C-alpha cells in the first residue's frame, strides 16, 4: 500500500502528525505510518519542517481505541494489461458476445462467467477499473440474473465492493421505496440462489445501502410532516440494520416458498416446501429486531404485498430451476456452432465466431511452453495457493469438486493465483504437447481455451507484442515469442475478476493439418503486418 509514500505526501502538503484526526483507533494505520516515517527520516538526517522529537513523543502518547470503529473498503484501480488497443476495437470488445434476436442483448462473457468477463474487459482496457463503471456495465448490458447473483454473492474482494455499488445504483432511481418495491427491484436483477450464504451477503449489503439512503429521507419527511407509506423503512420503525436484514431475509424466503408452492415445473424429487400462511409467517417474525415487534397490521400488509409480487422474482432453487450456466443457451450455442472455424472450414468476415469482431480464425492446436527462469510478473493482487512449484497451468472447466485442473504447463513459473495445477506428468515435466482451442480475433487478440466449445477464454495474448520466431512447415510447428527478444506475455483470467500476466520465453504450437498451419501463419503474418 506504499504507506511511506502516503505519509510523505501528507506531510509535504502540510499534514501535522499530532492532530486529533490521527489519534483515534480508526486511523491507527496512518498513525503507525507517520511514526515509522518520522523515525526513518530522522535517522537519515533528511530536511523536514517538523520537530522530530516532539512529533514522535506526541504520537507515542496517542489515545486508545474508540467504540465508533467503521469499515471503509479500500480499492486500488488496476492498470490494463493491454494498453494499445484503439477505440474502435475497444467498442467491439465491449460488445463481445452480444448476440440475439431483436434488441435482446446477451453478454456471453459475463453470462457464462461474470468474473472472467470483468477480468477480460478491464485487462483489455474496455472498462476502467472503477466500481461505478463496473456496476454500470452490469446495467448497460443484460447480464443474466443467475450469473450476477453468483458473482455478487461470492466472498471475492471485488464482489464485496461491487454488490454495494450495484445496489446503490439500483436504489438511486427512486427517492423512497417500500420494502416490497426494494425486494422486487433487487431480485428481478439479481437471482435468489440456493447458496444461502451468498444470499445472506446480498441481503446484508441491500440492508446497509437501503438503511443509509432512507435515513436522510425519513428525517426530511418528519421535518416536513409528510405522511409515510406503511411499508417504507421509516414507517417500519426498525431500530437496527440487523433487524432489517432479518426482515428482508424472511420476506425473500416467503416469496420463494410461495413461488415453489405454485410452480408446476418442480419435480417430485425437489425438497417439499410447506405452505406458509400469514399467521405462521408472523410467528417467524417474533423476536425480530431485538424483540421489538413490528405492528401486526404492517406484517399482514407486507405478507399480502409479497404474495402479489412473488411470481416476478428471479428465484432458482431445486431441480425445477436454472443454475449458473456452464455453457451457452441453445440459441446462442447454435449461433456459435454455425460460425465456428474447425480444421477444414474458413470463415467469411461476416460469419465470425465472435459477433462484430470481423475476420476470425478458430481451431484446436497442440501447445508446448519452453522452460524458462522464474520470470514472473503480475498486474493484480495475488495470494499464495497450493500448487506445484514448477508449473503454470491454463485451467479447464470446473471439475465436480469445483477445483480447476491443468491443461497447459510452463516449466519454471509460478502458477496464477487462484488456479490449481494438475498433480500429474505434465505439471512436472512441462515438455509435452497439450491440445487447446485458439481463437484469433480482430484487434490482435489470441484467445486460449481448454474447451473447444467454450466462448470464454482462459487466457489471451496480445499479438502485436508477439512475433513468429521459428516455424517448421514439414512438422506443422510454429513458435511464438516476444517482440525484439522479449518474453511472451500471457494474461490469465481468473474467476474472481482478477488476472495475472505470466511471462514465458516461447510457445510452440502444432497444427493438426497443413491447411490449418498455412491458415494460422497467414493470419499471424497479417496481424504483424497491419500493426
TrEMBL record:
Residues 372-409 are annotated as: Disordered. GO terms for biological process: regulation of ARF protein signal transduction. Residues 111-309 form the SEC7 domain. It holds the Pfam family Sec7. GO terms for molecular function: guanyl-nucleotide exchange factor activity. PROSITE patterns: SEC7. Residues 377-389 have a biased composition (Basic and acidic residues). This is SEC7 domain-containing protein. It comes from Vitrella brassicaformis (strain CCMP3155).
Amino acid at each position: 500500500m506504499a504507506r511511506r509514500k502516503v505519509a510523505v505526501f501528507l506531510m509535504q502538503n502540510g499534514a501535522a502528525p499530532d492532530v486529533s484526526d490521527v489519534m483515534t483507533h480508526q486511523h491507527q494505520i496512518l498513525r503507525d505510518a507517520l511514526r515509522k516515517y518520522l523515525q526513518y527520516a530522522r535517522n537519515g538526517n533528511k530536511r523536514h519542517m517538523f520537530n522530530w522529537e516532539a512529533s514522535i513523543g506526541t504520537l507515542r502518547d496517542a489515545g486508545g481505541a474508540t467504540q465508533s470503529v467503521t469499515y471503509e473498503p479500500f480499492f486500488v484501480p488496476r492498470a490494463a494489461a493491454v494498453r494499445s488497443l484503439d477505440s474502435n476495437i475497444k467498442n467491439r470488445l465491449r460488445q463481445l458476445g452480444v448476440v440475439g434476436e431483436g434488441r435482446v442483448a446477451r453478454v456471453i462473457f459475463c453470462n457464462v462467467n461474470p468474473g472472467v468477463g470483468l477480468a477480460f474487459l478491464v485487462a483489455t482496457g474496455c472498462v476502467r477499473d472503477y466500481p461505478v463503471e463496473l456496476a454500470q456495465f452490469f446495467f448497460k448490458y443484460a447480464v443474466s440474473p443467475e450469473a450476477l447473483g453468483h458473482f455478487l454473492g461470492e466472498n471475492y474482494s471485488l464482489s464485496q465492493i461491487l454488490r454495494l455499488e450495484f445496489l446503490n445504483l439500483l436504489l438511486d432511481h427512486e427517492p423512497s421505496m417500500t420494502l416490497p418495491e426494494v425486494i422486487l427491484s433487487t431480485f428481478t436483477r439479481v437471482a435468489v440462489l440456493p447458496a444461502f450464504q451468498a444470499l445472506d451477503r446480498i441481503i446484508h449489503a441491500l440492508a446497509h445501502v437501503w438503511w443509509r439512503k432512507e435515513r436522510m429521507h425519513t428525517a426530511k419527511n418528519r421535518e416536513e410532516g409528510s405522511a409515510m407509506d406503511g411499508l417504507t423503512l421509516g414507517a417500519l420503525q426498525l431500530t437496527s440494520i440487523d433487524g432489517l436484514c432479518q426482515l428482508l431475509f424472511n420476506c425473500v424466503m416467503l416469496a420463494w416458498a410461495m413461488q415453489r408452492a405454485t410452480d408446476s415445473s418442480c419435480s417430485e424429487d425437489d425438497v417439499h416446501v410447506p405452505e406458509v400462511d400469514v399467521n405462521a409467517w408472523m410467528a417467524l417474525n417474533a423476536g425480530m429486531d431485538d424483540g421489538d415487534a413490528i405492528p401486526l397490521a404492517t406484517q399482514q400488509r407486507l405478507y399480502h404485498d409479497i404474495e402479489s409480487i412473488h411470481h416476478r422474482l428471479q428465484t432458482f432453487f431445486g431441480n425445477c430451476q436454472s443454475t449458473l450456466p456452464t455453457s451457452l443457451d441453445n440459441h446462442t450455442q447454435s449461433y456459435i456452432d454455425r460460425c465456428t472455424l474447425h480444421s477444414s472450414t474458413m470463415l467469411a468476415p461476416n460469419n465470425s465466431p465472435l459477433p462484430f469482431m470481423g475476420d476470425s480464425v478458430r481451431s484446436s492446436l497442440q501447445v508446448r511452453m519452453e522452460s524458462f527462469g522464474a520470470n514472473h510478473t503480475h498486474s493484480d493482487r495475488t495470494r499464495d495457493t497450493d500448487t506445484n512449484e514448477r508449473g503454470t497451468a491454463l485451467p479447464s472447466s470446473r471439475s465436480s469438486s469445483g477445483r480447476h485442473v491443468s491443461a497447459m504447463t510452463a516449466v519454471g513459473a509460478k502458477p496464477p493465483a487462484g488456479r490449481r495445477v494438475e498433480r500429474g506428468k505434465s505439471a512436472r515435466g512441462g515438455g509435452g504437447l497439450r491440445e487447446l482451442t485458439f481463437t484469433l480475433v480482430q484487434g490482435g487478440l489470441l484467445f486460449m481455451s481448454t474447451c473447444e466449445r467454450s466462448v470464454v477464454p482462459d487466457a489471451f495474448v496480445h499479438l502485436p507484442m508477439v512475433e513468429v520466431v521459428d516455424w517448421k512447415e514439414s512438422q506443422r510447428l510454429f513458435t511464438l515469442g516476444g517482440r525484439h527478444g522479449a518474453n511472451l506475455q500471457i494474461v490469465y483470467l481468473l474467476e474472481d475478476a482478477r488476472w495475472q500476466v505470466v511471462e514465458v520465453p516461447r510457445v510452440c504450437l502444432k497444427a493438426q493439418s497443413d491447411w490449418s498451419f498455412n491458415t494460422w501463419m497467414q493470419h499471424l503474418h497479417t496481424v504483424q503486418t497491419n500493426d
